[in-house]
Amino acid sequence: MALRRVVVTGLGAITPLGSTVADYWEGLRQGVSGADIITRFDASKFKTRFACEVKGYSPDTYFDRKEGRKMDLFTQFAVIASDEAIRDAGLEGNVDKDRVGVIWGSGIGGLRTFQEECIAFAKGDGTPRFNPFFIPKMIADSASGNISIKNGFRGPNFITTSACASSSDSIVAALNYIRAGMADVVVTGGSEAAITEAGIGGFNAIKAMSERNDDPQSASRPYDKDRDGFVLGEGAGALILEAYEHAVARGAKIYAEVLGGGLSSDAYHITAPDPTGEGVVLVMQNALRDAGIGPEAVDYINTHGTSTPLGDGAEVKAIQKVFGDYAYKLNISSTKSMTGHLLGGAGGIEAVASVLAIQHGIIPPTINHVTDDPELDAGLNFTFNKAQTREVNVAVSNTFGFGGHNTSVVFGKLRD
């Protein structure tokens, strides 16, 4: 069976840099940091007291009070981003809803809901009084379920959970469902809302996050010698993937083509990356093979680049092994330097950034670079501190998660 071509026809985002795709892209282009002191709770006693929050967020802006109370924040973000993408793609009333699916990604799901309910029970007299929305709000698939219910989409509907690779896995799953003819359109991407006491405390406990409390905006510094961990972010990124022929038939605008996707496992450690980068080598090779292109076709890699000492080095080693001498002709950047790390939502907003880099011919920067790391090849173009202009025909988006989950998605300009 011939596989169908798949294109991107809509984008949506709510991020620490802005609550629309346009605002998000402008923040990326200008090299804005989304980090600041945490406002969602009193973090004064935590080792890390800052994060990349969605600024000025109020659910009342998007939902009536009754509706908003039924959703955890990660689901609210998912619905907001998907609404923008659906409008952008012109899907309202313009498709067979039996053929539209929702495949979403989240690494954790309703962490705030779970935390609040457990605290309330612990403070009580032991009588089990739980909110009837506790379970529906907490479970990760409430995001895909709510998107489907709101829009009446009756196609394939599920969530992918693979830590920080979750959103990218949802995109690859959506690609393959459409390729195989199991859906014509899929709303995909991912969301996360883990800036809570449990989220900050838990990542502090495994020493994964930056503790640069005196200068939060410069704390996320991928590939810098003095990087000391990631900065936690929140939000959502959504893409509408669609069969090429279906998009053309309804006159949809096309942002880019999804050329392929690859998956692999480090099979090494539950939290630490394989320092050799072999799993990352494998995932990029798998993605390029699936896309039917060679390394020399790639112009830009939106790296996982979390700003951790081990992870950044392993990814750079892998890029050099896969791309060889051509690695010096690539643009490489980590947009997490601006958005922070959205965990399971990272692949969603970074896929949006990769598609926009193709559309606009602009590489978003890796900000906060001060000191070269002698362990990393300074000859590589990390797009430090300022955006760069170049034609981008092919972009690769990398995401890697705890448990050794690796995913790469390949986007390209629409081919003839």
UniProtKB/TrEMBL annotation:
InterPro entries assigned to the protein according to its UniProt record, in alphabetical order: 3-oxoacyl-ACP_synth-2, Beta-ketoacyl_synthase, Ketoacyl_synth_AS, Ketoacyl_synth_C, Ketoacyl_synth_N, PKS_Beta-ketoAc_synthase_dom, Thiolase-like
Any one annotated GO CC term: cytosol
Molecular function via GO: 3-oxoacyl-[acyl-carrier-protein] synthase activity
A UniProt-annotated Pfam family: Ketoacyl-synt_C
Catalytic activity field: a fatty acyl-[ACP] + malonyl-[ACP] + H(+) = a 3-oxoacyl-[ACP] + holo-[ACP] + CO2; (9Z)-hexadecenoyl-[ACP] + malonyl-[ACP] + H(+) = 3-oxo-(11Z)-octadecenoyl-[ACP] + holo-[ACP] + CO2
Family to which the UniProt record says this protein belongs: Belongs to the thiolase-like superfamily. Beta-ketoacyl-ACP synthases family.
Entry function: Involved in the type II fatty acid elongation cycle. Catalyzes the elongation of a wide range of acyl-ACP by the addition of two carbons from malonyl-ACP to an acyl acceptor. Can efficiently catalyze the conversion of palmitoleoyl-ACP (cis-hexadec-9-enoyl-ACP) to cis-vaccenoyl-ACP (cis-octadec-11-enoyl-ACP), an essential step in the thermal regulation of fatty acid composition.
UniProt lineage: Bacteria, Pseudomonadati, Bacteroidota, Cytophagia, Cytophagales
CDD domains per the UniProt record, alphabetical: KAS_I_II (cd00834)
GO biological process, one term: fatty acid biosynthetic process
Designated name of the protein: 3-oxoacyl-[acyl-carrier-protein] synthase 2
Pathway: Lipid metabolism; fatty acid biosynthesis
Enzyme Commission number(s): 2.3.1.179
Keywords, in A-Z order: Acyltransferase, Fatty acid biosynthesis, Fatty acid metabolism, Lipid biosynthesis, Lipid metabolism, Transferase
